[in-house]
Amino acid sequence: MTSEPMVGLHVSIAGSIDLAFNRAKEIGASTFQIFTRNPNQWKFKPIADETVAAFREKRKESGFRKVVDHMPYLPNLASPETSTMKISRYSIEEEVKRCDALGIDYLVIHLGSHLGKGTAVGVANIAEACNEAIAVSRGETTILLENMAGQKNSVGARFEELEMILAKVKADGRVGVCLDTCHMYASGFDLATRDAVERSLGLFDEVVGLDRLKAVHLNDSKGALGSRLDRHENIGEGKIGRRGIKEFLHYPGITERPIIMETPYEDEAAERKTMRTVLGLLP
To answer: Which residues pair with 110 in a beta bridge?
Structure first.
């Protein structure tokens, strides 16, 4: 028997982290993504024991099969600069610990920029950061590498770069990939038609392996194919378009992963509309 698809949004944790479950259920979601802390600050407070307990209890009550966390924006795991590297590695180590405590399944990380020092340097730094984070982990949270949109000096826009990082992480079962459709399209992987989707995801399977794909960020793209513009658009309203998004969702195995939208919805009504749109495009 096939399980129902897991579809949701990035939701707020305002008030308390456990309220994410309430917000997800209110819009008809069956999964969600959160930040466990302010994504634009280095400093953060520990999560109170009672909050951890409330989160875990609501997880049981919700029946959600997978829950996703996203790293803050400030860390640059690819950075060759010692000070940035040190604080970025501390950040991912602490985030993995927070995910472990909460019982969160996946931690999505941005890979960052090698700052002109070359892809090999960036790849090595990211892999070592993952290795160090996994070494201090006392849970089962899996780190997911998010493909990038192809900005200058960024690491991870090409599938080969994702595979290079995966190959250097020692704990193979603790790392995977989160594919962002906007980033794929912006970096040159066409998704606008069935043939394009089959070519792009077929290449991903060949280079990385669909078994390494653990989650999806389903976002349309404001920018054109290969524009390297990381600008998300509402589902069906961007350059990928409704047809392309539908074909992506119909590719074998995609709906077996949690599907998270990070589109520019403005209120709960827009969130509900996004959910209805995507649910209507599912196989």
So the answer is: none
